[in-house]
Amino acid sequence: MRTTILSAAALSVAALTLTQLPPASADSIGVSDPKDLRHGVDLRSVTVDHKAKNLVVTTTHTDLQESFRSGSSGAVFLDTDPDTPGPEYVFAGGFFVGTDYRLLTTEGFATATWGQPVEGSYRMKVDYEKETVRFRISRAAIGDPDEVRVAVRVAGTKPNGKDTRLDWLGSPRTFTDWVASS
User: What residue range is the signal peptide (predicted)?
Assistant: First the structure.
């Protein structure tokens, strides 16, 4: 396996190269993320599909691991109200076999601001072969918003079991563009 060491300047430029595929006014958006984490949970892309009945967020990773030793997890923050800054919901869960997930209300990004579980239909599915995690949320569970935007944070434990690494889509605590429902 070849390892490339990038300078800080190159990493800064890579972080600025987020690329949107369709326009934000469409019912879906795709955003890429540079390879910036040497861990199986490294976030590579996020697709947001705001469909008629469900919001589907799909994340793609590099080398997802089934083992609990990876400590792999993620959180999708949902902003459903353009008039109120920050996320109203967070969908969080582990990305290894035997873990769980939850859709919660939130008043911010910090776990201390995460609130009560949301009633409604939602599901998270990890596909280790495709290296994707699919978050499906009924629009009714999140108030049937006209448009949404997301921020994504993933984390994983280094093999030494002591250090946790974080990877955000773009800059920490920043959202994609708004995606209107179809």
Answer: 1-26
